[in-house]
Design goal:
It is a single chain. The chain is α+β, with helices and mostly antiparallel strands. The protein has four helices and 13 strands. The chain is globular and about 55 Å long. The N and C termini lie far apart (40 Å). InterPro entries: Glyas_Bleomycin-R_OHBP_Dase.
Length: 194
């Protein structure tokens, strides 16, 4: 029999007293072939895709399990309403994405939350305080910070949070797949104030 006093208070039909994650903003598929996965998702009506490479030329402060790390990842984004759908293909170096492929195969590897109640500097501390250490991080174009936490054993997946600074403009992608949006229709801007 469990001790109910160990659980947070239910505040509403959607809120617990210990909530801090905020909105679900992203779901990510890890794959060995980003092009094949994009093609499959396009067949389901998800796209167009913006394709980037996250590596030493585009990401600063890259860490893996508490150490500086040299890794590269092909990262693809498409938007479905307010939710970003992401595809990641590890290219080289140590990463939780390659670990996922090696141990579980392809599939949904992580979900991301905006943690809007916590400033960026306090988010990792809050995850740590709850028993979920930082396992991978970086800053895309030295501005868009991202961090992944070791929630796999407790939840069955990895949790991420990221912070897009106000006014951030995504660089033009390496590629649009299956093609770019019509002229004058830029992708939505996802901003967070923390």
């Amino acid at each position: 029999m469990s001790d109910d006093s160990a659980f947070p208070t239910v505040l509403s039909s959607t809120t617990l007293s210990n909530g801090f994650l905020g909105k679900l903003i992203e779901i990510c598929f890890v794959t060995a072939d980003h092009r094949r996965t994009m093609e499959g998702l396009v067949r389901l009506g998800i796209g167009p895709w913006r394709v980037y490479t996250f590596d030493s030329t585009t990401v600063t402060g890259r860490t893996y399990r508490g150490e500086d790390a040299d890794y590269g990842i092909k990262v693809c984004f498409a938007d479905v309403g307010d939710l970003a759908v992401e595809i990641m293909q590890p290219l080289y170096g140590p990463s939780i994405f390659q670990e996922f492929l090696d141990t579980r195969g392809e599939g949904i590897q992580h979900v991301a939350f905006d943690c809007e109640e916590k400033p960026w500097g306090q988010r990792a501390d809050e995850f740590e305080r709850r028993g979920f250490p930082l396992i991978q991080s970086g800053r895309f174009v030295d501005a868009n910070a991202f961090a992944f936490f070791d929630t796999q054993a407790a939840t069955g997946t990895t949790f991420e949070t990221y912070s897009i600074p106000p006014g951030f403009v995504w660089p033009e992608p390496e590629e649009w797949f299956p093609g770019p949006p019509p002229p004058g229709q830029a992708p939505p801007v996802r901003e967070q104030q923390h």
